[in-house]
Design brief:
With 328 residues, the chain is mainly α. It is built from eleven helices and no strands. Helix 2 (38-54) runs antiparallel to helix 3 (65-86), helix 4 crosses helix 5 (137-148) and helix 4 packs antiparallel against helix 7 (167-202). The chain is flat. It is a multi-pass membrane protein.
């Protein structure tokens, strides 16, 4: 093992040790709330897989297959975790929310996809088991999944094969598969994703503020009280007409704290959009309140009419009783 690789493994070990200590402190501070955040589970998976790969630091230079797998999992989850952190930035947060929403939509219809893949995959395995792509059940299911994405590969499965068992039924199931999976189900998934994106774009500004507020609250809860008292800003002066430095401009462009650079809106435009959304909601509530007032007035008129009729019936009954006794 070279000295450079040993130093890198030592650095990774120390860094992961501090990261694990940080996670334990968060667990102590947040209690049960810690287990409600899926990002914490990803952090633990990254730290443990990295430690499993580098330990022992001074061991054999050759890594076991399980350690190589742990390294691949660590890198994969690490980049995904970076994507989740980008959700807090103004420029990229909307796109990350879009991806997460589409992924949730995919999970909702995943059971439906699995059932169709099992139905067609098992059928192809039984009818076309002599073809290499369908020779085993796992291969057949994987081939069916790849074909769902649009790669039907009709020539390799049917044209170049001289002997296809149950050819008539195989052609029929393949035609049904080509109609159902790539056309109907995939277009249904695309339609659901487009609808989710449209809803996200309508509420992009409010979602951005919500994510930033949640981040600030989580950061405030994780810090000790004595440090918060020292870091509390009692007074802040803003000079909007002062010329900003080049570093401030670069920071604002990168983090998009001052304006939504990607859409060409400045901060005043964002406030205008938010006020417009609030105005629409107030107008909607005003319409609903007027409708409720109209319904209540109608019910009041019905009750008054019933009361008038009941009083009329009571007076008529009293006159009949007095006439019967001869009192009038």
């Amino acid at each position: 093992m070279t000295r450079i690789s040993l130093s890198w493994e030592t650095y990774i070990t120390v860094f992961n040790s501090f990261s694990i200590i940080r996670e334990l402190l968060q667990l102590y501070q947040l209690r049960l709330k810690y287990f409600l955040d899926a990002a914490n589970y990803m952090d633990w998976a990254i730290n443990l897989s990295a430690l499993f790969y580098v330990l022992p630091p001074a061991g054999c230079p050759c890594k076991s297959p399980h350690q190589m797998e742990a390294a691949a999992v660590c890198l994969f989850l690490g980049w995904l975790n970076l994507v989740l952190y980008l959700r807090r930035l103004s420029t990229y947060g909307r796109f990350v929310v879009m991806l997460m929403t589409m992924f949730q939509t995919l999970l909702k219809v995943l059971i439906l996809f699995i059932l169709f893949i099992l139905a067609f995959g098992v059928s192809f395995y039984i009818l076309m088991g002599n073809i290499t792509s369908y020779s085993t059940l796992p291969r057949s299911l994987m081939k069916t999944f790849i074909m769902t994405l649009g790669e039907l590969n009709f020539e390799a499965s049917f044209v170049t094969q001289e002997d296809i068992g149950y050819s008539v039924l195989s052609y029929g199931i393949f035609i049904l598969f080509a109609l159902v999976m790539p056309i109907i189900l995939m277009n249904m998934l695309i339609g659901l994703a487009v609808g989710d994106i449209d809803n996200i774009q309508k509420n992009a500004v409010m979602d951005r503020y919500r994510v930033q507020v949640e981040l600030l609250l989580a950061l405030e809860e994780s810090l000790p009280k004595w440090l918060l008292r020292r870091l509390k800003v009692k007074e802040h002066t803003e000079y909007p007409n002062h010329k900003k430095s080049i570093w401030t401009k670069m920071w604002m462009i990168f983090c998009d704290l001052g304006r939504a650079h990607g859409d060409g809106f400045d901060q005043s435009d964002q406030v205008s959009v938010t006020l417009s959304q609030l105005k629409d909601r107030v107008d909607e509530q005003d319409i609903r309140s007027k409708e409720m007032e109209r319904i209540l007035n109608e019910q009041l008129e019905v009750l008054n009419e019933l009361n008038r009729r009941l009083r009329g019936n009571e007076e008529g009954t009293g006159r009949r009783i007095m006439n019967w006794f001869g009192l009038q």
